[in-house]
Design brief:
By secondary structure, the protein is an alpha+beta fold. Helix content is about 25%, strand content about 20%. The chain has helices spanning about 35-40, 55-60, 70-75; strands spanning about 5, 15, 20-25, 25-30.
Amino acid sequence: MPALVEDEETYISYLNADVRHIKVKDQLVPVVHDLQHYRAKGIMLEYPGKIANYEFLRGLIPEYADLFWVTLEEIAKNPS
């Protein structure tokens, strides 16, 4: 099941309402659908009732920010 779905009119990707976790670097990260979670982090949702992909990613910070940085070890494993 894809974590994001695309709106065919706006071409904006939104969080799939059925997804509960995403996997980042072998770690399951909970997907938060509660709009209050985003408001509490100062994220104003651009599209009513939907969470755009970039809003979702901003909502992961600071708790999961370290998962999105590439380490030197990871670069060494796959230099391309």
